Design the sequence.
């Protein structure tokens, strides 16, 4: 009995395809990427726990005892908890209100509101804090000067150098996180339940409180936790607004431990509670969000209809504009005025107008040019390396290339639960002694930025890869391509918009980073955020404003470039 040649050929082709799927010569690439990210995370974390609990004499709890019995250290912890709590409350109130108004009502100009919230999001909190020292400083703050001129009073109306001022400023740059969560959830809720309540005679506000609010409750709780953690990990705003008033938080206290003489043991011990609190709250958030959903029973017929605000439409818009003026218009305006003025506290007249601040900042101040060069070199290098590494790691986890690949995402996303200044403590300890002597070079900043920004690139890339079917790569592999070639020639071109978004997010994150930079820089490796912090100590207001405008301009140019390169796909891929 003879076997048809076509059957033999098909069998051979099938066997070849099977072998190609089982063996891949690029396996060392995937294993190397996975091992690299595991080591990248374990080294700083191991260094923190080891330094906090071990001395030359062996295991000790002395550092923890000192941290948790010294009244000054306990006060710093309490300040962090109380400020973060109220920041979370205010951020939820403001972010939920704006998210609901933009997505569920006929609020005028919703796209403009979203754009301004994005402007709040990309504004570095330390830069916003500095702008508010010019606006609400008790001596020469612009708002206080207006108040004195209008009322004839000699006292100040506002004093931003208080714990209330610190809470106010941090909330301004934390509410965009809540807004994003509420807006995304609200857009998924159909209007069927709201329509039913309306038919039964419920008012629009009762509908919002009894229908919309419960459906968004998981996002509200998650938003509170995110805002709380964001506030808890900030260094710049507490340093600029709190330290002049003698108010320490956990992050500023950790920074103080690095001043002469440095106490690395106490810095590590002080970092552990912050790290454990962050991990615990993230776990709570995931448990809450995992147990409750956002969907309503409406099927395909469920539609979202905007609630008519009626006579409240324009008052609601004015309220939104007032909120956004506090985070965008007033800070940006005072920075621009300070950059163009000879005396920033005086009116911007022709006599007071100058471009000298730009000349001084870019050409005369000694640290600026090197810092700008370092910032952009690190931004480009970190964004490029981070996107490449995130691509490999997302491909491994998405295609399950290695045994235990699902656990790899834990290590990649671990920096999400590590505040920047805590990560810097671990990196300083791990890389300031042989054999990995990186401290004193720009490379330790590169490692810090790569570690800190990796979750952003990974999350963006993985969500993009989920939309690309593996069969497209299998077709390439059957004709002889290995997985790396299939990734390069098939998957990456299809994931173009997501990869561009990942690159831009990492780049913007790097150029605005201060928490890790402030502990890891040396005179030869300063970056723009550190120079701004130094200039604040020197009172160089005009130069700070110029550098702040530079950071903001670059951030917005990057966003515009990404929108142009990736088009609408950018927004679809980055909604989460």
Sequence:
């Amino acid at each position: 009995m003879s076997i048809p040649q076509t059957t033999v050929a098909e069998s051979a082709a099938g066997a070849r395809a099977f072998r190609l799927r089982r063996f891949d010569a690029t396996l060392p690439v995937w294993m190397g990427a996975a091992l690299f990210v595991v080591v990248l995370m374990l080294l700083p974390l191991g260094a923190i726990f080891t330094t906090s609990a071990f001395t030359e004499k062996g295991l000790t709890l002395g550092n923890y005892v000192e941290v948790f019995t010294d009244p000054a250290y306990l006060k710093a912890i309490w300040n962090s908890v109380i400020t973060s709590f109220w920041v979370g409350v205010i951020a939820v109130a403001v972010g939920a209100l704006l998210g609901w108004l933009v997505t569920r009502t006929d609020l005028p100009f919703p796209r403009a509101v979203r754009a301004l919230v994005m402007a709040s999001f990309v504004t570095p909190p330390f830069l916003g804090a500095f702008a508010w020292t010019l606006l609400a400083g008790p001596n020469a703050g612009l708002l206080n000067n207006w108040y004195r001129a209008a009322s004839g009073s000699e006292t100040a109306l506002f004093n931003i150098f208080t714990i209330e001022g610190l809470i106010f400023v941090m909330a301004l740059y934390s509410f965009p996180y809540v807004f994003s969560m509420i807006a995304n959830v609200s857009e998924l809720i159909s209007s069927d339940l709201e329509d039913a309540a309306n038919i039964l005679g419920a008012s629009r506000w009762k509908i919002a409180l009894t229908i919309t609010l419960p459906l968004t409750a998981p996002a509200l709780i998650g938003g509170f936790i995110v805002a709380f953690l964001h506030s808890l990990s900030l260094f710049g705003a507490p340093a600029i607004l709190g330290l002049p008033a003698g108010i320490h938080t956990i992050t500023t206290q950790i920074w103080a431990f690095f001043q002469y003489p440095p106490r690395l043991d106490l810095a590590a011990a002080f970092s552990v509670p912050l790290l454990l609190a962050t991990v615990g709250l993230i776990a709570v958030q995931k448990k809450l969000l995992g147990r409750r959903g956002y969907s309503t029973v409406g099927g395909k017929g469920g539609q979202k209809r905007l609630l008519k605000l009626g006579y409240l439409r324009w008052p609601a818009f004015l309220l939104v504009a007032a909120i956004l003026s506090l985070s965008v218009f007033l800070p940006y305006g005072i920075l621009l005025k300070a950059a163009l003025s000879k005396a920033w506290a005086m009116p911007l007249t022709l006599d007071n107008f100058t471009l000298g601040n730009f000349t001084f900042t870019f050409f005369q101040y000694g640290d600026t040019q090197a810092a700008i060069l370092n910032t952009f070199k690190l931004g480009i290098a970190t964004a490029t390396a981070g996107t490449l590494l995130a691509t490999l790691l997302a491909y491994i986890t998405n295609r399950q290339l290695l045994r235990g690949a699902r656990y790899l995402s834990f290590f990649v996303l671990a920096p999400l639960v590590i505040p920047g200044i805590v990560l810097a403590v671990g990196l300083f300890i791990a890389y300031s002694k042989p054999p990995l002597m990186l401290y004193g070079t720009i490379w330790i900043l590169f490692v810090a930025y790569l570690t800190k920004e990796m979750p952003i690139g990974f999350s963006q890339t993985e969500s993009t890869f989920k939309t690309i079917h593996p069969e497209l790569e299998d077709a390439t592999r059957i004709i002889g391509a290995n997985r790396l070639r299939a990734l390069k020639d098939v998957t990456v071109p299809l994931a173009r918009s997501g990869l561009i978004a990942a690159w831009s997010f990492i780049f913007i994150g790097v150029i605005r980073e201060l928490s890790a930079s402030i502990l890891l820089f040396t005179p030869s490796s300063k970056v723009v955020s550190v120079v701004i912090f130094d200039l604040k100590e020197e009172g160089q207001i005009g130069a700070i404003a110029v550098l702040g405008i530079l950071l903001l301009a670059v951030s917005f140019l990057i966003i515009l470039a990404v929108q142009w390169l990736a088009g609408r796909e950018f927004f679809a891929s980055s909604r989460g």
